[in-house]
Specification:
Blueprint lengths: L3 H21 L4 H23 L5 H18 L1 H16 L6 H13 L2 H11 L5 H21 L7 H13 L1 H4 L5 H22 L12 H13 L2
Length: 228
């Protein structure tokens, strides 16, 4: 089954989120706030470690700047947050951070190289070993995220399925273009996006990190052209 790894990944996020929601209901607000700050710091750490994988600062800066401009023109941030608010209204959820939790979880679960490589591995007919390993990590992460951010984390499985499933679907055509250098530059661009997310989570400055998502595509294209 081609999408088995992605389905397992989504399943562990759902289970982890449900466990986290159990603790979320029992956590005092001050502990929830401290946990939220810890997640922000962890996000910064992951972002910096991913961004350090770049082999070309020029590609990295061009990809993030051009990606942010393209994303702003497309206004991805508004559409995905609007989708989150729509889900919140349909579910009659009182969680003020519903959309924020969904977006933060999606970005954390889907920006790493394991997502790209795992989707290609499975899409090319191999066993979903990487996505299985990623599922374990995401399962534990979803416990911590939903414990502090609430039910929005659970619904991050929707964009996760669309994004990761889409990569798997097009893995055949991507295989020839995705070298190690390309994966590293996509990962580095994803790292910068996660740094932006960490800054937003810590309320240092609110950034439209979703509008930077086109940087992943631009980084991959530029790396495919200029790095060998």
């Amino acid at each position: 089954m081609r999408f088995l790894g992605t389905l397992i990944n989504a399943g562990t996020v759902v289970v982890g989120s449900l466990v986290g929601l159990f603790f979320h209901a029992k956590l005092p607000r001050r502990l929830s706030t401290v946990a939220f700050q810890g997640i922000g710091l962890f996000t910064l750490f992951i972002g910096f470690s991913m961004a350090a994988k770049t082999r070309s600062f020029i590609i990295l800066v061009f990809s993030i700047v051009l990606g942010a401009i393209l994303g702003e023109l497309l206004d991805i941030d508004t559409y995905l947050n609007r989708f989150g608010e729509l889900l919140k209204r349909r579910l009659k959820s009182g969680n003020e951070r519903f959309a924020e939790g969904m977006v933060a979880a999606f970005l954390l679960f889907c920006m790493g190289s394991m997502t790209v490589l795992g989707a290609i591995e499975e899409g090319m007919g191999g066993r979903p070993n990487l996505l299985a390993a990623k599922s374990v990590l995401d399962g534990f992460a979803s416990v911590a995220l939903s414990a502090s951010l609430g039910i929005g984390v659970l619904f991050s499985v929707i964009p996760l399925l669309l994004y990761q499933g889409g990569l798997t679907l097009f893995a055949g055509s991507l295989k020839a273009a995705v070298s190690g250098a390309v994966v590293n530059e996509i990962t580095a661009a994803g790292g910068l996006i996660l740094i932006g997310l960490g800054i937003s989570i810590l309320e240092i400055k609110q950034l439209k990190v979703l509008n930077m998502l086109p940087a992943l595509v631009i980084a991959g294209v530029l790396a495919g052209i200029f790095l060998h």
